[in-house]
Amino acid sequence: MRTFRRCVVPLAIVVAALGNANAAFARPHLGMRRVRRHISRHATKTVQGAVEVEGDIERDAFPDGSRGTQLTTTGRFRLADGIQLNLQVPALSTDGAGSLRLGDVSAGVNVQVFDDVPMFGDVFVLPMLKAPTGSLEQATGTGTTDGTVLLVSSNQFGAVGVDLSAGYTRRSGDGTNAPRRATLWSAAVDGPIRRPLGWAIELSGLPATTGPAGSGASAALTAGPTWNVHDRLAVDVAVMMPIAGDQPKALFVSAVYRSPNTKRAPGSTR
């Protein structure tokens, strides 16, 4: 049985790309976060009705000295072979010490379009929609409806996993609260240390955006250990350090739980 693998890929997938990056802490970009590659992301490898729940805590320290906290709950539900529903609910504290408030909720469908393509491995397309459920006044939402398409290549080279991703977002509004168009990219690798411990490293970036809320390009490096507690529970801790642009320093703590009825398809090797 394959280890419950967790690889870092930016939660710019659902934060920077979907617009919460512009809402949280009233910054053009919130720090990169990760949506690790879990077993349920390979939707063809789980049974009908399989459920996975992830909880993430992020603590950011911005260059101007301000701080912020984000708690995100993500649910993943297998709908059919190669198709998975993703639901995400963020809660934000924009003053560094206040209570958490609801952010912009997002939903998407993860579709596996290719399986074991040479050099690219499994290829996924993830279209997502973000609703303006957060508060623009409290800096927990952008006040826009966002559509995002993310392309992910997920491959395995021996014991080392490699994930590559690129995304594009289009937002409603006039660009005052958040750029109308945004893109992102990431490259991540992970591997074992000694069972059940592992490691993960990610390089990710947000290209420059235009308009009243636009900002320059930024990039960050995220790294940390992973711990497969057992077949249904994984935990990781990571630190993000900015490389270029206006990115915060950040600390992440995450846990993912798979429902007990999650099983591998007969003959599955991944």
Note down, in words, how this protein is organized.
This protein is mostly beta strands and 270 residues long. The protein has a single domain, classed as monomeric porin ompg (Porin). It contains 1 helix and 13 strands. The protein has one helix at residues 20-23; strands at residues 51-61, 67-80, 83-93, 101-102, 106-117, 121-130, 146-157, 160-171, 181-194, 197-206, 218-230, 233-244, 249-258. The chain has a 12-stranded antiparallel barrel with strand order 1-2-3-5-6-7-8-9-10-11-12-13. Strand 12 (233-244) and strand 13 form a beta hairpin. The model is unreliable at 1-47 and 262-270 (pLDDT under 50).
Short note summarizing the structure:
With 270 residues, the protein is mostly beta strands. It has one helix at 20-23, and strands at residues 51-61, 67-80, 83-93, 101-102, 106-117, 121-130, 146-157, 160-171, 181-194, 197-206, 218-230, 233-244, 249-258.
